[in-house]
Amino acid sequence: MTQLLSSNDPWKTDELTFPRSGRLQDQLAFCVNYAVLAPSIHNTQPWLFRPLDDAIEIFADRSRQLPVTDPDGREMMISCGAALTNLIIAINHFGYEGWVQYRPEPGNPDLLARVRIGRRRVADHWDESLFRSILRRRSVRRPFQLRPIPRDLQRRLIWLASEYTCWVHFVESEADRSRIATFVEEAHHQQLQNPAYQAERSSWIGSGDHRSRNGSNRDSTDETGAPDVTRSTSDGAALETGKVWQERDRDLIQSSPSLFVLGTSGDSPLDWLRAGEAIQRIILLIESDNISASFLNQPCQIPELREQVRRMSGRSGPPQLILRIGYNTGVGSPTSRRPTSDVIMPQQP
Ligand SMILES: Cc1cc2nc3c(=O)[nH]c(=O)nc-3n(C[C@H](O)[C@H](O)[C@H](O)COP(=O)(O)O)c2cc1C
Fold first, then answer.
1. Residue to probe by mutation, ligand 1, list 65, 76, 84, 223, most atoms within 8 Å of CB
2. Do 309 and 322 contact (CB within 8 A), yes or no?
3. N or C, which end of the chain has less CB nearby within 10 Å?
4. Which pLDDT score is estimated for 234?
């Protein structure tokens, strides 16, 4: 198996090296190279996989949860849901049906899903398009083209989300767009006042002189491309840098052709997992039309602001994610990933 996962960079996986005539377990391990390309909160990549003889399991990796930003593990679960979507798309691409059992062992809450492998099947045009999108997708935090998103596509996204028991609310009016910008600003403001939040963020998002826990070695910019507030030498300087984030996010929100909230009816770990699956399907679907997305999720991390987003969306269930989408102006380079071999669990004897 080590040989199959030899590349240290999953983005560079060569699909021609898929072990067509190998054991199913090795083929499933190969598919993990694509699962790990999913987005994750602070690029934490909080997942582990166990390939079996006729199935593959995905686990939450609690050691990579963010206790300050994400104390309930909600965004960790959403990230794992996104990886599950990539995994199934890769399994389909390499010619198998995959059937998901959610939380198959109630006594083992970190075992999130088991994907049972069904019959052989020939990947169709739709499978191929989603598979290509996995490799092209990036969180794009630059301004988008001003071109509007087709109405018809909005309807498809709402329908797609409903397949995962999720709702989507498009933020249409200028007043609501401005309210979202205010919520994001307020969330930044509150998080910047919290040294524990800043320390956590710093340990995950790389700065020039160290490699952060997620394996990235970015320079002094935050995950959104602005100067890293955690490297500011004083509280005053940190707040100044924070203002750069706030202004940049307000500009991005005001100039985005489309902004939406994705939510669920309940607020359980299974709802979070399914929200992650839904959002990744949506992002991969729009990517095939050259439309990109980025997350503006801070208001969902603060209970009072999350409640305000829910009210604005006019739903009874909680919001899980806020995203902006639009036509991209170019392809950026990918953020780094851990080597796939780090996330494959050994088989039980
Ligand atoms: C649940 C979740 C929440 C996220 N929240 C934010 C956010 O609030 N702001 C942001 O800029 N990126 C956010 N991201 C995007 C991650 O930072 C991004 O996926 C990660 O850095 C990897 O980069 P990539 O998506 O380009 O592969 C979020 C991603 C997930 C899955």
1. 223
2. yes
3. C
4. 53
Task: Return the CATH class of domain 151-327.
Answer: alpha beta
Burial track 61-85 (b if 16+ CB lie within 10 A, e otherwise): beebbbeebbeebbbbbbbbbbbbb
- Answer yes or no: same fold for 2-136+334-343 and 151-327: yes
Closest protein CA for atom 11 of ligand 1: 224
Three-state helix/strand/coil letters over 33-55 = HHHCCCCCHHHCCCEEEEECCCE
Residue 329 Cα to ligand 1 midpoint, Å, equals 19
User: Does ligand 1 come within 6 angstroms of the Cβ of 29?
Assistant: no
Task: State residue 221's pLDDT score.
Answer: 39
Q: Which helix (H) or strand (E) holds 113?
A: strand 111-120
pTM (predicted TM-score)? 0.92
Sequence-separated (6 or more) residues with CB below 8 Å from residue 349:
none
Average pLDDT across each block of 10 residues of the chain; the chain has 349 residues. List them in order. 65 96 96 98 97 97 97 98 98 97 96 96 94 96 93 97 98 94 94 92 65 50 44 54 74 90 98 98 96 96 98 98 94 92 83
For a mutational test of ligand 1's pocket, the pick from 9, 36, 43, 274, i.e. the residue with the most ligand atoms closer than 8 A to its C-beta, is 43
Q: Scanning the structure block, which residue is given the tokens 């305000």?
A: 308
